[in-house]
Amino acid sequence: MAGHGGARTRSGPMPDPTSERSDLRGLGADIVPLSSKGYRYKPKAFPLSEWVVFDVWKDEDGIHKERNEAATDAWNSRERALWGDLWKLPQAIAWHMPKYRYLFNTVALYCRQFVLCETADAKAADRATLARYADTIGLTPQGLRLNGWTIVDDEEKQPKQAASSSGKVIPFKSAKTRYLEEHGD
Questions:
Q1: How far is CA 79 from CA 48, 70, 164, 183, in A?
Q2: How far apart are CA 121 and CA 56, in angstroms?
Q3: Bridging pattern class, strands 62-67 and 54-59
Q4: N- or C-end of the chain: fewer Cβ atoms within 10 A?
Q5: Quick one: residue 123, left, alpha or beta (phi over 0 = left, psi -120 to 50 = alpha)?
Q6: Higher pLDDT, 106 or 6
Q7: Each residue of 118-156: pLDDT tens digit?
Q8: At what angle do helices 104-117 and 69-86 cross, to 10 degrees?
Q9: Contact at 8 Å (CB) between 154 and 35?
Q10: Are 113 and 133 in contact (CB under 8 A)?
Q11: Which of 53, 54, 118 is nearest to 81 (CA)?
Q12: Count of other CB atoms within 10 angstroms of residue 152
């Protein structure tokens, strides 16, 4: 019977790519590290067509619809500003990779949905869609895990900081090793 039981994409806790179990299953090897410095290049042009804002009113002659130039310009400027900001994030490094190129238009749709959610007309369904887009393009911790990405701090350590740390690194045993030592199995 179709549709009964079985694993679902977002059911249960997300696997921890740094855990020993993930290592045993080979899941940690597929993690894509993204520099915390973010994407350093100019993004491509915003791929969606212009959004048009209309004024709609009703009078004795019927319903009227007229393009609002100022609101249309403001909407499209906000989308492009957000687009530029998003392409400075670490996730943009992945969006640029051929493997994740399919997310390019989803990032644009996220921008459009974000601007919609900034308006007074936004509904709960609009905000739910925005959250799904954020997961899909890796803007949330869950989205990073779903895509197999991790943001890494690749800042060079200053020699002063390295010399000043007088602490010793203490290696901790894995949970499996501790269990075996305690139970003798």
A1: 10, 14, 46, 59
A2: 14
A3: antiparallel
A4: N
A5: beta
A6: 106
A7: 999 999 999 999 999 999 999 999 999 999 999 998 765
A8: 130
A9: yes
A10: yes
A11: 118
A12: 14
Neighbours of 97 (CB within 10 A): 12
* DSSP helix, strand, coil percent of the chain (3-state; round to 5): 50, 10, 40
Q: Supply 120's token pair.
A: 């007074």
**Cα angle for residues 145, 22, 170 (degrees, 5° grid):** 100
Give the pairing of strands 32-35 and 149-152: parallel
Copy the structure tokens of residue 19. 């855990």
| 96 Ramachandran zone, left/alpha/beta (phi>0; psi -120 to 50) | alpha
What's the whole-model pTM score?
0.70
Whole-number Cα distances in Å, 2 to 5, 9, 108: 9, 16, 35
**Which pLDDT band holds residue 5 (cuts at 50, 70, 90)?**
low
Neighbours of 91 (CB within 10 A): 24
User: pLDDT tens, 84-97?
Assistant: 999 999 999 999 99
Give 111's contacts (C-beta < 8 A, 6+ positions apart). 46, 48, 79, 82, 83, 86
CA 18 to chain centroid: 19
pLDDT on residue 27: 53
What counts of helices (H) and strands (E) characterise the chain? 8, 4
